UniProtKB/TrEMBL annotation:
Entries under InterPro entries matching the protein: aa-tRNA-synth_I_CS, aa-tRNA-synth_Ic, Rossmann-like_a/b/a_fold, Trp-tRNA-ligase, Trp-tRNA-ligase_bac-type, Trp-tRNA_synthetase
Pfam families: tRNA-synt_1b (PF00579)
Gene Ontology process terms (BP): tryptophanyl-tRNA aminoacylation
Xref: HAMAP family: Trp_tRNA_synth_B (MF_00140_B)
Descriptive protein name: Tryptophan--tRNA ligase
Residues engaged in binding L-tryptophan: 140
Assembly behavior: Homodimer.
Keywords: Aminoacyl-tRNA synthetase, ATP-binding, Cytoplasm, Ligase, Nucleotide-binding, Protein biosynthesis
Native source species: Candidatus Avacidaminococcus intestinavium
Amino acid sequence: MIKGRIFSGMQPSGRFHLGNYMGALDNWIKLQNEYECFFSIVDLHSLTSSYDNTSLLQSNVMEMAVDWLSAGLDPEKNVVFIQSHVKEHAELFLLLSMMTPLSWLERVPTYKDKLQQLGSQGKDINTYGFLGYPVLMAADIMLYKATCVPVGEDQAAHLELTREIVRRFNYLYKKEVFPEPQAVYSKAKILPGIDGRKMSKSYGNTIPFGAGPEEVKEKVRMMLTDPKRIKRTDKGNPDVCTVYTFHKIFNPENSVEIGAKCRAAEIGCVDCKKCLAEKMNHLLADIHVKREELLNKPAYIKEVLEYGAQRARQVASANMEEIREAMNVL
Ligand code: AMP
Ligand code: TRP
C-alpha cells in the first residue's frame, strides 16, 4: 500500500559525493517502493546562490541525473524531472511570495548563516531571490500537494516554514487546498570526509560519487587515522579514526573485528585502508559501471527527464488550476 506522496529535491551544485549518496539518495531509493515520489533536480534553487556564473549549470544538471539513475533511482516508478521544466514552480513561487511575511523569511536560521558564510567568501547573495529560497522550496512541495518530504536535518527550518505557509494559505482562502507536509528524516548518519569533518563540497574533503577504483584508493589512503598511533606497533584507538568510521558504514560485518585488531596493534593502518578501499570499490563497482555507461548516453538522459517533466506537469497544472481558483486569479 502506498503511504503517501513524497516530494524532494537536490541542487545540482557540482560533483555529487558519497555523503549525498549515503545521507539522502540511498534513502530515496528505499522510499521509492513505499510512496508515490516526485524527485526534482532543483536548478532554480541553485541560481539563488550561483546566479553570477551559470556556465556549469547544464552539465551539473545532467550529471546529477546520471548519478541518480546509476544509483538505482527508477524513472518509471518515480517522477524524476528538472524543476525549471515545469513552469508552475515559478508561478506558485510568485503567488506564495505575495502572502509570505518578510519576517518569517528573515528569521530562518540558515538565511543569516549562509549570507555570512558566502559573504566571507566574497559572494554577494543579498538578493531578493536568496531571501525567497524557502518560498521556492515551499512551492515545490505544495505544487504536488506532497504529504511527506525526505530531507536532511539541515532542511528542518525550511520545512517548518512550508507548513506555516500551508496553514496561512488554507486560512486566507478558506479552503483546505494543501496538506501539511511531514518531514521524513533519514536514519543515515552524517558521513565524514577524508579529514574527519562532515563530508562537504565546501571543505574539499569529499569522495566523489563517480570516483573510480583508483580515486577511491587514493582518497582512502589520505584519510586521517588515530594521530596518536605513530608506529605500526602502537595500539590504536579506532573511535577517533575516520577509516574505522567508514568500516562501520561500508564494511559492517567485519568492523568489530577490525576495531579489536586496531586496539591490539594486530593490523596496521596501511592494511586497514587497503581492506576498506577494496570493500568500497566492491560495493560501488556496479554503480560505477552504470554511471560510465549513462554518461555516454546524453540523449537517453534527456528523454528520461522530458518524460518526467511531462508527468510532473500533469499534476502541477491541475493543482495550479485549483490554487488560482482559490485565490480568484482566474
Ligand atoms: P548538500 O550537498 O549539502 O546540499 O546536501 C544534499 C543532501 O545530502 C542533503 O539531504 C544532505 O543532508 C545530504 N548530505 C550532504 N552531506 C552529507 C554528509 N556528509 N553525510 C550525510 N548526508 C549528507
Ligand atoms: N533546499 C534543499 C536542499 O538544499 C533542496 C530542495 C529544494 C528541496 N526544494 C525542495 C528539498 C523540496 C525537499 C523538498 O537540500
